[in-house]
């Protein structure tokens, strides 16, 4: 495997796979003006191989696939994926929230029963001396 070629400044250095210097990231529109220039229909100066708004050279070796919007089915398998994705996410997180939930449920039920007992006749009678 060959290491990636370093980008260097300057238009005279042929770089890249197709010997075209595209400029730094964010500066694709500011290529050097060593190419043949012409005036566009709006009167702006263009460099051969670029559009009038400063776009880069035509890219080679980039393949793009697309599908017409009326041929797409955006909800294909959505219900099936929703069920199994929900189960997967729930099973990964259940051990983080279930033990505290169970603990506090039993603690609250014990406290409620204890409160009912202490406020009953038997509870008042048992703890009448402690007040």
Question: Can you characterise this structure?
Answer:
The chain has 131 residues and is mostly helical. Among the domains are: 8-58, no CATH class; 96-131. The chain contains two helices and two strands; from the N terminus they run ββαα. It has helices at residues 78-118, 121-126, and strands spanning 37-39, 45-47. A two-stranded antiparallel ribbon has the order 1-2. A hairpin with a 5-residue loop joins strand 1 (37-39) and strand 2. It is elongated. It starts with 36 loop residues before the first strand and ends in a 5-residue tail after the last helix. The model has no long low-confidence stretch (mean pLDDT 74).
Largest sheet: 2 strands, antiparallel
Record field, number of beta strands: 2
From N to C, what is the helix and strand string? EEHH
**Radius of gyration, whole Å:** 36 Å
- Helix/strand class: mainly alpha
| Spatial separation of the terminal alpha carbons | 86 Å
SSE order and pairing:
Blueprint: E1 37-39, E2 45-47, H1 78-118, H2 121-126
Antiparallel strand pairs: 1-2
Quick description:
With 131 residues, this protein is mainly alpha-helical. 36% of the residues lie in helices and 5% in strands.
What descriptive keywords fit this protein?
elongated, mainly alpha, two-stranded antiparallel ribbon, 2 helices, 131 residues, single chain
